[in-house]
Design brief:
With about 80 residues, this protein is mostly helical. The chain is about 70% helix and about 0% strand. The chain has one domain. Helix 1 packs across helix 2. The model has no long low-confidence stretch (mean pLDDT about 80).
Length: about 80
């Protein structure tokens, strides 16, 4: 797999991780849990500078914004 693809998986895994931790109504279904475990390993393998950037991004995107974007529809 390419570095770009691995970095994309790492970012996606971190996004899902934040959403999942911050919103108790979200369930990981199907292969999502296994995908998360695989892709969080990509996150762990990132250089420290990218860890720091993504952790900063994580703080900036907390649920105040994301809950508006990903609000489940009511019916």
């Amino acid at each position: 797999m390419t570095t770009s693809n691995n970095n994309g998986r790492a970012l996606e895994a971190k996004l899902v991780d934040v959403l999942y931790q911050e919103n108790p109504t979200i369930s990981l279904v199907g292969t999502t849990q296994q995908d998360q475990q695989r892709d969080l390993a990509y996150f762990a393998a990132l250089p420290q500078a990218q860890h720091s950037f993504l952790r900063t991004l994580q703080l900036g995107m907390r649920m105040s914004y994301l809950s508006e974007v990903f609000r489940p529809s009511k019916g």
